[in-house]
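Please fill in the sequence for the structure shown.

STRUCTURE ENCODING:
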C-alpha cells in the first residue's frame, strides 16, 4: 500500500477526501488516518492479548506472539490468525475505532467466518458476494485510493 505524501496530494485531484489530504500549511505532515491507533491503544490491545485464555487446542498461547516493546503481534500461526480474523477482531477494536471502521471490521469478520466454515451453503455464498461488495464500498470510504492498487 502506498500511503505517502504524494499519494495524499493526489487525493485532491482524484476524489473529495479532504480529511486525509496533505495539509497545505504543514506540507511535510500527513494527518493521521481514522484507523490509526494511539500508542496507549496499542498497549491496551497487546496487554489484552497476553491475558487471553482459550480452551484446550482452540488456539495457541497468543501471549508468545506479543512484543510489548514494539507493541505489535508477530509470528502468529495460520490457525491463530484465523481465530483472530473470525472471532477477535470486532471485540478487540470496537471501542477504539470510529463506527465506520469498526463496522467494516465487523463485516470482514463475518465474511471470514462464513467463508472459512466447514460447510458452505449456496444461499450463504450469494449473500457473501453481496456483502463483499458492501465491504469494499465501506473500505473505500476509509482507506486512500492507493490502498486498492
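FILLED IN BY: designer on duty
SEQUENCE:
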Amino acid at each position: 500500500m502506498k500511503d505517502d505524501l504524494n499519494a495524499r496530494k493526489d487525493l485532491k485531484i482524484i476524489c473529495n477526501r479532504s480529511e486525509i489530504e496533505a495539509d497545505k500549511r504543514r506540507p511535510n505532515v500527513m494527518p493521521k488516518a481514522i484507523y490509526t491507533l494511539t500508542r496507549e491503544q496499542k498497549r491496551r490491545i497487546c496487554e489484552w492479548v497476553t491475558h487471553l485464555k482459550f480452551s484446550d487446542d482452540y488456539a495457541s498461547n497468543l501471549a508468545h506472539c506479543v512484543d510489548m516493546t514494539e507493541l505489535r503481534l508477530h509470528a502468529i500461526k495460520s490457525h491463530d490468525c484465523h481465530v483472530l480474523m473470525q472471532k477477535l477482531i470486532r471485540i478487540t477494536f470496537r471501542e477504539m475505532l470510529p463506527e465506520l471502521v469498526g463496522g467494516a471490521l465487523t463485516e470482514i469478520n463475518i465474511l471470514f467466518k462464513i467463508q472459512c466454515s466447514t460447510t458452505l451453503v449456496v444461499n450463504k455464498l450469494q449473500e457473501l458476494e453481496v456483502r463483499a461488495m458492501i465491504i469494499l464500498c465501506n473500505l473505500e470510504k476509509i482507506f486512500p485510493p492507493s490502498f486498492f492498487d
